[in-house]
Specification:
- The protein is α/β, with parallel strands linked by helices and 345 residues long.
- Helices cover 47% and strands 7% of the residues.
- The protein has 14 helices and 5 strands.
- Strands 2-1-3-4-5 form a 5-stranded parallel beta sheet, sandwiched between helices.
């Protein structure tokens, strides 16, 4: 289960307060007056006008009059541009992953921070790591502006509060050994930028993932990743191309980090947690693919290792018993290839 902070004034620790409610004394924008072009509202609108994720596509202004199939074709064509935008950032993504894996190899945690769609995507990625890679639930964590309730109900006002992000990270006991990945389509969300700035002050490694160039988020982070996907099909709806881009990059960050940490053997999920019948069947299939052993030998190996896939593979390929496999994996930091070399040596 993904962990959530319970900092005072934000989340379960303070059930009486609505984190999305207005509080002008702590609102960095101050009161918003739509009739004052030089005030906070005018400045915010001018800022949004510069963002490609907010840009208006005049060529799509009558999309609602098209047949459904044609709208689907247009949308599919827009989505097809996202991988190319991600590809342009691969060197930056790889550098961030290597730095993340280095921290996590020393016991650090990976923390995603964001608001709205971006925050939900971070929580989703974090929640998938324990069943896929057998990570401890506290090892990869997602925090979202507005707390757990924001996963299913909008808490839009919370994204304007950088102080809430600092409180959330402090609630996790964030330290210099950890990694914080701030995710924001606009790259200007106060909660997310605040999370990265606070994490950096604490000495943590920081990554800023946005979909606009020259973003405050990228500038605030040690590693800035800006996947510019362009204007959305529905103006400003950054859950579309921007959300897809963020999901692709988060997949890379968690998956490749786990590969670097030895959580796979080739492209096999050897650290999979067999918590249901499907995963138990998958565990046996993984051992079979890795070893080519008979069903009988696979069952024997899994029985001898308490159902641990990685250990079972080592007993078969390394021709060692269960306790020896456990020791070799412990000494190799859980890296199956290294343990195999030791067994065969």
């Amino acid at each position: 289960m993904t962990s959530f902070p319970t900092a005072a004034g934000h989340g379960p620790g303070d059930p009486g307060r609505d984190p999305s409610s207005s509080d002008d004394s702590r609102d960095p924008l101050g009161p918003l007056d739509p009739l004052d072009p030089d005030g906070a509202y005018g400045r915010l609108r001018a800022e949004l006008d510069t963002l490609t994720t907010e840009a208006f596509r005049s060529d799509l202004s009558e999309i609602d009059r098209l047949p459904t199939l044609e709208i689907a074709r247009v949308m599919n064509g827009e989505d097809a541009t996202v991988p190319t935008a991600v590809a342009s950032q691969l060197p930056r993504i790889a550098a961030a992953i290597d730095a993340t894996a280095e921290r996590m190899a020393r016991g650090g945690r990976l923390v995603y921070a964001g608001a709205g769609t971006a925050g939900r995507l971070g929580v989703l990625d974090a929640s998938e790591c324990p069943p896929t890679f057998d990570t401890d639930p506290s090892q990869v964590v997602g925090v979202i502006a507005g707390g757990p309730e924001a996963l299913v109900s909008a808490a839009e006002g919370a994204e304007d509060r950088a102080d809430l992000a600092a409180a959330d990270l402090d609630g996790l006991g964030l330290g210099p050994g950890d990694v914080v990945v701030g995710v924001s389509a606009s790259g200007r969300t106060p909660y997310t930028v605040g999370a990265v700035e606070h994490a950096r002050r604490l000495g943590a490694l920081t990554v800023g993932l946005s979909c606009n160039s020259g973003s405050p988020l990228a500038a605030a982070a040690d590693h800035g990743i800006e996947v510019v996907v362009g204007p959305e099909l529905i103006t400003g709806s950054s859950r579309l191309k921007a959300g897809t881009a963020q999901k692709l990059v988060l997949n890379m960050i968690s998956t490749i980090t786990m590969i670097r940490l030895g959580k796979t053997y080739g492209n096999l999920m050897v650290d999979v947690r067999a918590s249901n019948e499907k995963l138990r069947a998958r565990s046996r299939r993984i051992v079979s693919l890795a070893t080519g052993a008979s069903d009988e030998r696979i069952e024997s190996a899994l029985a001898a290792t308490g159902g641990e896939v990685k250990n079972a593979i080592l007993t078969i390929l390394g021709e060692v018993d269960g306790p020896t496999a456990e020791r070799l994996l412990r000494e190799s930091g859980g890296r199956l290839r290294t343990a195999l070399e030791a067994a065969r040596g």
